[in-house]
From TrEMBL:
UniProt protein name: diguanylate cyclase
Single GO MF descriptor: diguanylate cyclase activity
Keywords for this protein: Phosphoprotein
SUPFAM superfamilies: CheY-like, Nucleotide cyclase
Length: 314
């Protein structure tokens, strides 16, 4: 007799199936393997996947309105959900159906009627693989000091988000953040205190970046960057002001700053990606906005409104 080895970390499992009976059966079989969320149609499933970013999605093929293949395609096309492993669940056990599922991006295939030992074994395998991939991703994509995403990961995300939002004709926001007089801080307090300062600032920036799909990365040295999908030019300006206040509220003493505490300068922009706007241009102009903040007094946010650099700082 064999026993299941434990799953090392809490896992999130999303079941998308239009049959309440199938949902109940799967949830009962897997209830000890992770937190279960379910949806009974494709649109709701996509919404939940975007919100919770589950490690594993059990996806029914035969659903009305939007079938499982279309749902899987849309999951894999969205950077926020593309890393979620998908197992198709279907009553069609033909080789053609299994091949199509794998071609759509699924990692496995379970046939109905459901066999509990088989379901559990396949789910456990994918959850373990997901955890291993997540651990590797943390090593490759995270900044060791701050725990934020690194510049390499930012470069990947900004490209994919730019293309996705260009297709959807939706706005993409960007923010560059720089700690004011950080070299002076290091010179006065030493590099260990400098590291602690970076960690505190990184944590505050991350805590202020709350919406689904948003991320903060360490761009290099004392500079950070935030990717902000689905945000207007007015909203991104408010976000930048919120960051300035959040860092000031930390109250980190900085005797060589004119403000007496650690502050940041921020440059922000938002635009709908088009054929006339490139990722390089978006980054370049946001960096100009950051420079404007630093050259006009620091501890402020400057907004660049697509066609021109705004010098209205706050």
């Amino acid at each position: 007799m064999t026993t299941d080895s434990p799953i090392e970390e809490p896992c999130s499992i999303l079941i998308i199936d239009d049959s309440p009976t199938a949902v109940r059966m799967l949830a009962d079989m897997l209830k000890d393997l992770g937190h279960i969320t379910f949806a009974t149609n494709g649109e709701a499933g996509l919404k939940f996947a975007q919100e919770i970013q589950p490690q594993l999605i059990l996806l029914d093929v035969e659903m009305p309105s939007m079938n499982g293949y279309e749902v899987c395609q849309r999951l894999k096309a969205n950077p926020t959900t593309s890393e979620s492993a998908v197992i198709f669940v279907t009553s069609d056990s033909t080789m053609e159906s299994e091949i199509k599922a794998l071609e759509m991006g699924a990692v496995d295939f379970i046939t109905k009627p459901l066999n509990q030992p088989v379901v559990r074994a396949r789910v456990r395998t994918q959850l373990k693989l997901s955890q291993q991939a997540a651990a590797l991703s943390r090593l490759v994509n995270r900044d060791e000091l701050t725990g934020l995403y690194n510049r390499r990961y930012f470069n990947e995300v900004i490209e994919s988000e730019f293309q996705r939002l260009r297709r959807q004709e939706l706005s993409l926001g960007l923010a560059f953040i720089d700690i004011d007089h950080f070299k002076k801080f290091n010179d006065r307090y030493g590099h260990q205190e400098g590291d602690r300062c970076l960690q505190k600032v990184a944590s505050s920036l991350n805590n202020a970046t709350l919406r689904s799909g948003e991320l903060v990365a360490r761009y290099g040295g004392e500079e950070f960057v935030a990717v902000l999908p689905h945000i207007s030019i007015d909203q991104v300006a408010i976000y930048g002001e919120k960051l300035c206040k959040a860092i000031s509220d930390c109250g980190i003493i900085h005797q060589d700053s004119e403000f007496g505490i650690v502050t940041i300068s921020v440059g922000v922009t938002a635009a709908i990606p088009t054929s006339t706007i490139s990722v390089h241009q978006l980054i370049k102009e946001t960096d100009k906005a950051l420079y404007a903040s630093k050259s006009t007094g620091r501890n402020r946010c400057t907004t660049w409104a697509h066609s021109e650099l705004n010098n209205n700082s706050t």
